[in-house]
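User: Sequence in, structure out. Go.
Assistant: Echoing your sequence, followed by the structure tokens.
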Amino acid sequence: MAEGIRITTREMHTGGEPVRIVETGYPEVRGKTILDKRRYAKAELDHLRRILMYEPRGHYDMYGVIPVEPDDPDAAMAVLFMHNEGYSTMCGHATIALGRYALDQGIVPAVEPETRFVLQCPCGPVTVSVGVEDGRIGEVRFESVGAFAFAMDESVAIGGRSVRFDIAYGGAFYAIVDAAQFGLELGVSPISDLVEAATALTAAAPQVTSLSHPGDRDLGFLYGTIITDGHDDGRPSTNVCVFADAQVDRSPTGSGVTARMALRRARTDVAIGQRCEFVSLTGSAMTGAVVAETSVGDTPAVTVEVSGRSHYTGSAEFVVEPDDPLGDGFLLR
């Protein structure tokens, strides 16, 4: 039983997806590099993730941010991302929230009409741009790490169907699939059916595609599946991302938008600078645009600018009483 724990947080959401930002009470996350810190958090501090993400303080789909000391000299902030299963390598919806948070808390001084700073994430540094007008913070944008299509037109048998899918990287690897491949339709089919289909593909895809990242082996895993409405051209597209342990993103998923734009560039040669809209099941929207061609090792890649808005929902002080038999957290779903 964890005892003597008192952690304060600032609560936000981006497109309905929660962002629980740790402010005080977290011990030092040790490590020379940010990936070292991610490994340390998993090995030594994972009880705190469960306390903050699980019931009764959180819920199955809670999402959180742990600020850590940057090892990148250009970074104004560095963070780890956490969820119901562990620690993400990238999170766009949280990055958008952190853009606003950093200015509001004075971590980064606000400069009109736009404030830019580097946020160090486990996948690498991203450049965050925050619109500021008359002291008010508006849209937040970030420019991704190198993103790329990893595999296209793969197929795997799921539930008696041959399911065709792609895999792309946007700070994390996602399988990307049209809902019609499962006989489903976004906005019509029950969310439970979408979650079941996405979870099945996340489990099955590695059987036919061996994932690797040219930069670091810690990044070479399939984080989740994005089910789309099948619009892979420049039209607005609705999608739902199911990641980690069947966790459902309420936002369009910022790293998923990055991955989808990299895939669009590879598949349809979407123009550099062409802005595309992506919509979640809550109706919230993010936009994405390929801004430059680059490479990750020997792999051709692009950088993608993703934009959105975040809002505050409150603040909290969480405690664990020594005699609470459920103090360490639990999940029922």
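User: And one key feature?
Assistant: The helical segments are 34-44, 46-53, 92-104, 191-204, 254-268.
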